[in-house]
Amino acid sequence: MKARTLVIIGVLVVLGIVLAFSSCSIVRPGHRGVKVTMGAVSDKVLNEGVYFRAPFFQRIVKIPVMVQQASYENLAAASSSMQDVFSNVNLSYHIKPERVNVYYKRFGSKPKSVMDLMLSAKLQEIVKATTNNYTTEQLLGKRSEVRDIIYNKIKVVAELQDVMIDEFSMTNFSFGQAYQNAIEEKQVMEQKAETARRAKEVATQDGEAKIIAARAESEANRLRQVSITPQLIRYEEVQVLKSKWDGKLPQVTGGATPLLNLGN
Questions:
Q1: Per the structure, how many domains does the chain have?
Q2: Domain with 89 in it: what CATH number?
């Protein structure tokens, strides 16, 4: 009888220990707790620490509130010029700690649920709507502006779902094959235009040089004509005759009458 009593006491002690441990729940750092009583979610958010619950009737759900990461590659959209646009988006987010009970009612205890169920689709929609307001060239030149617009819009949507966006980046804008072909064609046309421009410059410079030379020649001719006077012509003739005279006077003039040779 005594042994039986000891066994019963031992069993009760073990059950008590099991119940004591099962009635305790620890909310670890980086988490918040939500107490659920027979399916009803409490309005009170449990911070980090140890909490007691009624075994079998209550449970404490732990929800992470640490920063989570999400990445989306090759999000497809289009520019206003109807060119395909692809981009990569990386963001970090966390559930609002003071709103985990509301979040749990909507999405459960997993942080990624909100991204899978709502924000990823909203992000795709926002990216398409935003890039459609820019031409392809504007998307390349205003990448920061486009990123900020998308970030501000997805931030508002996330906050309505009790989620905070901590960081947002949009990288690697790329375009479809049609745009690549257009770029190559444009480069070829620009090269041809540059070649034609240089040829025109050379032709223009040659033409201007010829015009300048012709004007100089014309001016030289004009100056020559102005400087040639009858006196100058007579002077030049005298100089020519003088250069040919040997210093002797002619001994015969007119008919056959000889001149006297004064030297003899």
A1: 2
A2: 3.30.479.30
Q: State the Cα–Cα distance between residues 255 and 264, nearest whole angstrom.
A: 22
Residue type present at position 127: V
Asked if 99 and 164 touch (Cβ cutoff 8 Å), the reply is: no
Q: By residue range, what is the domain housing residue 132?
A: 68-175
Q: What percent of the chain has pLDDT over 70?
A: 68
pLDDT of residue 258: 52
Q: Report if residue 129 sits inside a domain.
A: yes
| Chain segment 55-100, per-residue pLDDT in tens | 778 899 999 999 999 999 888 888 888 888 889 999 999 999 999 9
